[in-house]
Amino acid sequence: xxxxxxxxxxxxxxxxxxxxxxxxxxxxxxxxxxxxxxxxxxxxxxxxxxxxxxxxxxxxxxxxxxxxxxxxxxxxxxxxxxxxxxxxxxxxxxxxxxxxxxxxxxxxxxxxxxxxxxxxxxxxxxxxxxxxxxxxxxxxxxxxxxxxxxxxxxxxxxxxxxxxxxxxxxxxxxxxxxxxxxxxxxxxxxxxxxxxxxxxxxxxxxxxxxxxxxxxxxxxxxxxxxxxxxxxxxxxxxxxxxxxxxxxxxxxxxxxxxxxxxxxxxxxxxxxxxxxxxxxxxxxxxxxxxxxxxxxxxxxxxxxxxxxxxxxxxxxxxxxxxxxxxxxxxxxxxxxxxxxxxxxxxxxxxxxxxxxxxxxxxxxxxxxxxxxxx
Length: 374
Prior knowledge:
This protein is of the alpha/beta class. It contains 14 helices and 12 strands. Helices cover 43% and strands 14% of the residues.
């Protein structure tokens, strides 16, 4: 079977990039599929994660983001030309690769896919949430664009969601919405955190969705009671410089690190993971950290944490945006090492739900069903 994935770029140390590289590898090596990944705006950016030798990769060179170099009519003309080029090059790739199924990762491209696809089944794989533009307080134009592209999903063969609640929302535009959680690169070394370190870890990009403001507010309260504990933040992002200045002024034992490919080792050197997202379609870092023996403290935001964490067993789910309660739960774990260890051991077992050998057969079943229907 020949599968094509379509996204914009693979330039960040992000969850989508990590999941896509993992799934492509599994599909080729586990099931013998042929996989091609298409990007539109990669340019000269290096790939953050290596692909299997059996996965082909092509950048279409559309550079849609260059539209912002132009104004008014010139921008409209550029958008028209690049759209035509996108359609043409995408059609060429689909024909050349003899695609059996096309998987769209970017909602923004749904209208283009509708013009290209004929009898080939295609699905939208949601790595965001149905209401993401509302959660992020996007402007009217952005919301209108999302509305148009969501309507295009009515013509898709299905929409794959990461959580049950989000799948219910996507059913507004497409009745076939299977739930397939992300494949997670779990710790398989046999080495786990002993939860004795005075380090707490946060992994995520510096932008609005990750709730960095809330993270800092929580740590202010924790630091007052436990000044010997350290919060390690691993991430990049457009707001990094802004938060670096704030954190340096506060002087509350927050250390910022660059993203690492060896992040599992960093989990094993910590005693708990914090997640303060405003919304989280899945939250890849949670099962990653859990597989290393870490309990997780997270806001019960839409929608990932509630699917991953069992409150009081392998972590704590805190009422969304309740800073004081979040800090109390962190302090509770700091003050009770036995609780940290017990929850951490439960977390290791819980994380196994997201192993490749558990998740990937669901994708195989879906792809075979789509081809049979067509």
